[in-house]
Amino acid sequence: MRRVIILYGGHSVESGISQQSAEGIMENIDRAKFSATMQDIQNFDFKSVDKEALIFIAVHGKDGEDGTTQKLLKKRKIKFTGSDEISTRKCWNKISSKTLMVENAIPTPEFKVIKKNQKLNLEDQFFSKNKSFFVKPNSNGSSFGVSRVDHIRNLEGAIITARKYSEDVIIERAYNSAEYTVGILKGEALQPLEIIAEDSEGFYDYEAKYISKGTKKVEVVDKKIKDELKKIALKAFYKHGCQTWGRVDFVYDGKDLGVLEINTVPGFTEKSLFPLAAKLSGINYQELITNIIEDSI
């Protein structure tokens, strides 16, 4: 029987969410196939791990999605779920990821990078030709530090907020028509979902993800959009070098789709987007856990 260590927690602002994901995996893992334990990464001794064990990485954000844990496990030749150090690092760094997408003709919202100590130049054509923006930390998850800006005078304040989480900041043109997400599992795109956020900020922020009861996650039924979402998601996923599982998030401006980011360790509670997409694709929660583990062995 394969021993599985479900790794969660850490120093990230997402540690609480990570614990919820780990608890969901622990409660639903197939006990006939796997012997499972949970371990907080803050107390985890990488040197003591049995080489026959598999690490199910459920650490969201820093340590889990920035390549740190993957690098340590690979060095010790310990198997783990999901993408490797290089691909997770590419996805975690929004500037690197956006650059990669532009180079590979993957549609993504136009953006501007504001590096550490760099002053904002409001005379830049990017700001004059666009009406609304999203200001984001270069490296963070769960929408921490993200602001929607509809008036150019509010950009400076949004940059200050983003820099609480990352020295470098990225400003994207806002796509205002719809938000979508596509899960990827073992080389296949799962049922795409549309996210309809009903909160005060009007986008899928932390409150909409984890607190609001009004946020809706519905199947995409338009075949043309659904097929396009799947096609672009798979291209983005594999151009970043990702493996086994992950989630690609999109926005839509009424005419064009744009990839926002690739999540290499997305939320994994039963109500999270990835397990919901799997369920709508005919894969229940326990089967999903098994699929991820067996593809990683």
- Under the CATH scheme, which class of the largest domain? Alpha Beta
How many helices?
Answer: 10
Report the strand count: 14
Under the CATH scheme, which architecture of the largest domain would be assigned?
2-Layer Sandwich
Query: Which consecutive residue ranges, at least 5 long each, have pLDDT under 50?
Result: none
In the CATH scheme, what's the topology name of the largest domain? D-amino Acid Aminotransferase, Chain A, domain 1
- The total tally of domains equals 3
Structural shape: globular
Instruction: Round the Cα radius of gyration to an integer and report it.
Output: 19 Å
Q: What is the chain-wise order of helices and strands?
A: EHEEHEHHEHEEHEEEEHEHEEHH
What gap, in angstroms, lies between the N and C termini? 12 Å
- Fourth CATH level, the homologous superfamily of the largest domain: ATP-grasp fold, B domain
Helix coverage percent: 25-40%
Describe this structure in words.
The strands form three sheets. Strands 9, 10, 11, 12, 13 and 14 form a six-stranded antiparallel β-sheet that branches. Strands 2-1-3-4 form a four-stranded parallel β-sheet, sandwiched between helices. The protein is 32% helix and 24% strand. The two termini are 12 Å apart. It has helices at residues 15-28, 68-75, 85-92, 94-103, 125-129, 155-162, 206-210, 223-239, 273-280, 285-296, and strands at 2-8, 34-40, 54-57, 79-80, 111-114, 133-137, 147-149, 169-173, 178-185, 188-189, 193-196, 216-219, 245-252, 257-263. The longest helix has 17 residues, at 223-239. A hairpin with a 2-residue loop joins strand 9 (178-185) and strand 10. The protein is globular. It has 297 residues and is an alpha+beta fold. It folds into three domains: 2-82, Rossmann fold; 110-173, ATP-grasp fold, A domain (Dna Ligase, domain 1, 2-Layer Sandwich), CATH 3.30.1490; 175-296, 2-Layer Sandwich (D-amino Acid Aminotransferase, Chain A, domain 1).
